[in-house]
Write a structure and sequence with these properties.
By secondary structure, the protein is an all-alpha fold. It has three helices and no strands. The relative contact order is 0.05.
C-alpha cells in the first residue's frame, strides 16, 4: 500500500512523467481504425487503376495490329 508521501514522490519523479496517458488505449484504437480506412481506400484506388490499365491494354491489342496493317498497305511498292 502506498503512503501519501510515496505517492507524491512518485508523481514528482520522471517515471510518472514518462508514463502513458490515460486515453492512450483509445487513441491507439482510433488510429488503428483510421489506418484500416486508409488502407481500404488505397486498395480501392489500386483496383480502379488496375482496371484502367486493363482497358488500355485491350485498346492497344485492338488498334496496334490495325495500325500495322494500314502502314503495310500504304507503303509504296518498290517492285
Amino acid at each position: 500500500m502506498l503512503t501519501t508521501r510515496q505517492l507524491s514522490v512518485y508523481l514528482k519523479s520522471d517515471q510518472a512523467k514518462a508514463a502513458p496517458p490515460e486515453g492512450m488505449g483509445r487513441d491507439a484504437a482510433d488510429s488503428m481504425r483510421s489506418s484500416e480506412c486508409i488502407l481500404k481506400d488505397i486498395y480501392a484506388l489500386i483496383v480502379r487503376q488496375g482496371r484502367a490499365v486493363d482497358g488500355f491494354t485491350l485498346m492497344n491489342l485492338l488498334f496496334l495490329p490495325l495500325n500495322f496493317c494500314a502502314t503495310v498497305f500504304c507503303l509504296p511498292s518498290a517492285i
